[in-house]
Amino acid sequence: MRKKSAFITFVYIALGAVWLNLGSHWIERLDERTPGKDMSFLYDYKNLIFLIVSGLILFLLIEMHRRSLSSVEKSYKQLFEGSIAAIYVLDLSSYRLMEVNEVMVSKYGYSRKELLEMTVLDLRPTEERNKLEEYLNSEHPEGRASGVWLHKKKNGDVFHMLISHHKTIFRGKPAYTVIAIDIERHVKAEERIKELLDVYETVTSVTNDVIWEYCPRTDQLDWMNGFTEIFGYTAAISENTREWILSKIHPDDRERVEQSMEESLAQLSNSWRCEYQLQCADGTYKYVSNQAFILLDKNGQAEKMVGALRDITLRKNYEQRLLRKNQMLKDIAWNNSHELRRPVSNIAGILNLLKADAERNQTDVSLLEMLERSALELDEIITKINVSTKNVDLKN
Fold it and tell me: Which regions span the lipid bilayer (predicted)?
């Protein structure tokens, strides 16, 4: 603006100097050519023409400047009222609100008249007023966000606003133009995220789940809390690649795990799950259950996998013990169905013979001996079954 004004002034002075110089030179030559006439009156006409032309030029320049200011003022007004943010102007000396936009009126619940009778301190909770006064009275940067401040509505609700401001002259007084953006939703979202992170950290601290994230495009594998604690791998001895973690899978399981993961990625499945043995830093193996969700990008391609790795060693060991005990129970059942049948059949046959002898009033001593041997054999089998049953300790 200053350069434009200086240029116009320079052009005006230059043209005026040229006009005055050429006019005087022209009148002098005309006076020389007409020695019998007094041409000095032309100087008055020249000055009059200069005044008229200068007046017209100044009028046009002033009108152009006025229209320019009017256009700027109109644009500023449209920006002021059309902004989605609350904008207000405050007096630097009294902190009174000098102008507010419609967003300000709807946001705080006051009428425009009420707001213009208030100070900026009235829009703050009591505990922040001293802080605001100290800030306004101190040296501070302008033209950028000055931080998040608590504001108060007419109904007493408190909410967070992101403030930026700059100095200006409004109605002849030093003032601040302040832009306030409501970020209450973002603050609550951040608080909610923090709560969820706290819950997540609590849950992961009491479970064996290790959250991980893998990006197929960059081959970047990131582990969350718990990986070092459960499997012993520190940052110094681990790598954030797929090949590294695959190399820690038991040789008997690796091909199956790789094939399963490749099929899920190729088929763009929503989820993937697999159980296998994973080597710890000390060389031992733990049984793990690995389950992941596959997230797709806008083109329908696999963008990342987010999963949970769980140590299921205790469960697997318990399952193996249950299988062994189940086999023992099958052996006991076989004894019940095969070994017991033989002496029982013998006893049944001997009893039939004894019944026949009793009808003839005769008793064969050898039959009694056979009955005794069968009874002893049956007792041994029952003892063996009892011993086998005691070995099946489901609690262990």
Answer: 7-27, 47-64
Boundary (domain end) residue, out of 251, 280, 311: 311
Could you tell me the CATH number of the domain that includes residue 276?
3.30.450.20
**Domain membership of residue 348 as a residue range:** 320-391
CB-based contacts of 358: which residues, under 8 Å, 6+ apart? none
Give the separation between CA 24 and CA 250, rounded to whole angstroms: 108
The lowest-confidence range among 114-123, 139-148, 284-293 is 139-148
Look at the pTM and tell me if it is higher than 0.90: no
Model confidence pLDDT, tens digit, residues 260-291: 988 888 887 788 999 999 999 999 999 999 99
Across the chain, the runs of DSSP E, i.e. the strands, are: 86-91, 97-100, 145-152, 158-170, 173-182, 209-215, 220-223, 271-279, 285-296, 302-311
Same domain, 219 and 301: yes
DSSP 8-state class, residue 326 = H
Taking only Cα atoms into account, the Rg of the chain, rounded to an integer number of angstroms, comes to 50
Give pLDDT, residue 338: 60
pLDDT, one tens digit per residue, over 61-119 is 777 766 766 655 565 566 666 677 888 999 988 999 998 888 888 889 999 999 999 99
Residue 74 lies in a domain: yes
Question: Does any domain span residue 194?
Answer: no
CA distance 255 to 246: 9
Please indicate, yes or no, whether residues 236 and 328 belong to a single structural domain of this protein: no
Residue 115 lies in a domain: yes
Whether residue 214 sits in one domain with residue 298: yes
Domain boundary among 47, 80, 113: 80
Residue 384: both structure tokens together: 């063996």
Provide the b/e sequence for 115-151 (b: ≥16 CB within 10 Å): beebebbbbbeeebeeebeeeeeeeeeeeeeeeebbb
The Cα–Cα gap between 17 and 7 comes to 15
**Assigned domain for 383 exists:** yes
Check: CB of residue 260 under 8 Å from CB of residue 272: yes
| 69, two tokens | 């200011």
- 212 phi/psi in degrees, rounded to 5: -140, 160
Q: Compute how many other C-beta atoms are within 10 angstroms of the C-beta atom of residue 224.
A: 15
Q: Are 264 and 235 in contact (CB under 8 A)?
A: no
Q: What is the pLDDT of residue 396?
A: 47
- Based on the fold, state whether residues 122 and 170 are members of the same structural domain: yes
State the total domains in the chain: 4
Provide the pLDDT confidence category of residue 3 given band limits of 50, 70 and 90: low
